[in-house]
Amino acid sequence: MTQIQQLKQQHSLASWKQIILAQQNSGLTAAEYCRQQNIKYNAFYYWQRKIREDFAASALQIPQKDAPAPEFATLATATVTATVQTATLPSMLKLSCGPVSLEVNEQTSSKLLARTLACIKDVFPVC
């Protein structure tokens, strides 16, 4: 292929890329777009196939032998240490009955607990 023919093909390829992008952005099917723009349907698909082939060929190019071989990068690492401190929590008891919820721990006096339960029983007989 001569240099002039290559330039013509590159120009045609660039023009058709714009046409195909316009069709995709229009939301129309290829057939509808070609009808509206007075483009030959067969020509549209011919250039669409050429553009796809050109893209696939450029995407699948084999690397040159002169290109350096890929290497893994060395990354610096940091040592992270974590200490977990657990606090001793008093034992907790949670009583629930309907809308009432009562939390009791070891420091709760038995008298307070008895009075509270009696009040709850008076107000909420179901509990």
Automatic annotation (TrEMBL):
GO molecular function: sequence-specific DNA binding
Highest rank taxon of the organism: Bacteria
Protein name per its UniProtKB record: Transposase
Organism of this sequence: Selenomonas ruminantium
